[in-house]
Amino acid sequence: LPEGALQLVVGLGRGVIDHVGASDTVTFTGSAATGKKLQSLPHIVENSVSFNLEADSLNAAILGKDAVPGTKDFDIFIKEVQKEITVKAGQKCTAVRRIIVPEELVDDVQKALSARLDKNTIGDPSDPTVRMGSLATRLQVERVKENIEALKKEQSIVYGDLDNFDVIGADKDKGAFMSPIVFLNDDPHNKTGAHNIECFGPVSTIMPYKDIDDAIKIANMGKGSLVSSIVTSDDQLATEYV
Q1: Which of 10, 62, 126, 155 is the most exposed place for a label (fewest CB within 10 A)?
Q2: What percent of the chain has pLDDT over 90?
Q3: Is the pLDDT of residue 56 over 80?
Q4: CA–CA gap between residue 10 and residue 96 (Å, rounded)
Q5: What is the pLDDT of residues 161-195, one digit of tens each?
């Protein structure tokens, strides 16, 4: 490729799309709201600019009814969900946003996940004792907090505190740090904010399901998730879900 054919701008990228014309192709991945806003810009529409939109969706992890506490599958599920909440401070498009579990196991999942998150240490990632760093920017923290406030209108925080948490080897007031937050949504069919609002940070929501058909309905409310997984040792159950 000729010099300059590939370029990377690390930052907000403001103004870049203003210069797009009919001979350009825009490939966008991010929030559906931002993507639709860019796609509908007058010069994009008027010049029939090729615009490929891959909108993030609210990804889900489902716990099979056979994966009860004490089984390896239950332990794997808790470990993976905790990892998805904390890796990159939850700032990745494939992070688990909805934790869909059998209604009779909600308390067990909440307790086990809280116990694992209690071991999560926040701070300077160069410190070997730290398990989670900061968000990308303080602006991102504010955006996540705004979405948390929106979600709080329908559901309750069962783990985490936005104000009270410890930071290792860094200044809590200067860095873009925040605590993992876990919500409980007791009625995911009617309290639908968690299917539409993505907190792009260490935030996830536990939701109960009655049977596998119900789990599928709830998962589909996330609008075609980029990622969905089911943890079970029941091949028939896994096949039916897929």
Answers
A1: 10
A2: 83
A3: no
A4: 25
A5: 999 999 999 999 899 999 999 999 999 999 999 99
Q: How far apart are CA 222 and CA 215, in angstroms?
A: 12
Catalytic residue chosen out of the listed positions 3, 46, 54, 240: 54
C-alpha count within 13 angstroms, C-beta hemisphere, residue 109: 33
Both structure tokens of 178: 């925040």
- Distance, in Å, from the CA atom of 199 to the CA atom of 181, rounded to the nearest integer, reads 10
Distance CA 161, CA 172 (A): 14
Residue identified by tokens 């999560």 is 120
What is the rounded CA–CA span in Å between residue 231 and residue 181? Answer: 22
Q: What is the largest CA-CA distance in the chain?
A: 60
Q: Is 80 labeled as catalytic in the residue annotation?
A: no
- pTM, two decimals, is 0.87
Clarify whether 146 is annotated catalytic. Answer: no
Choice among 3, 80, 93, 240 that is catalytic? 93
For tokens 């896994």, name the residue.
Answer: 238
List, as one string, the DSSP characters of 184-205: E-S-TTT--HHHH----SSEEE
